[in-house]
Amino acid sequence: MAPVTSATTVMAGTTVDRTGTGTDAVGGHGDPRYVLRTATTSDLGGARAVMLDTVYRDLKSGYVPRWHADIIDPETAYLRPERCTLLVVEHRGEIVATGAVRDRGPQAPPNPQGVADRFPSGTTAQLCRIYVRPDHRRHGLARQLVRELGEFAARAGGYTALYLHTDPAVPGAEPFWRSLAREVCDERTLPGGGQGIVHFELPMPVLDASGTPAQ
Questions:
Q1: Residue 156 phi, psi dihedral angles, 5° rounding
Q2: Omega before 110 within 30 of 0, i.e. cis
Q3: What domains are there in the chain, each with its CATH number?
Q4: Superkingdom, according to UniProt (predicted)?
């Protein structure tokens, strides 16, 4: 699994890029630091807690085995496969945010056939589980996770598309993704409303020969 290879410090609106050692330090308001890094097995309990809290509190679905098996066993889903990853953000020893890449596209059903055809497994990097605890939102953590996950997918090789879907019923989710990605399908416009979710495609980052974003 490829590690995070760059580090960015964000303090008081100023961004400074520097060569890193596998972590990103993302400053919040004031002195406390948020450290973004590739998850290890010791992080899985904290990551699982963030994910489960989100599906119960924000998504209102609770744990559904056919949808959330990766939450219960993130090691198999994200740590073992070479072209998948799980990133975490740590704050004062606690995992407060997660984000992952899985190496399969949306399946039909339940997703529209046209979306599944456009994003086939194997060549699609699906961004998922980009969750931030409520007390730690509005620090740029989700945006930083998206950037690092996109760069991971570009470095992994073989991926031609970055895909994700979101539930617009979650406060703030739809405008956040619309600020970063292009809508592919809004199921609310389909006959019957589908699942009510919105599918997006993100631009694949362009990296230079060293594996860092091209300027």
A1: -65, -30
A2: yes
A3: 6-160 (3.40.630.30)
A4: Bacteria
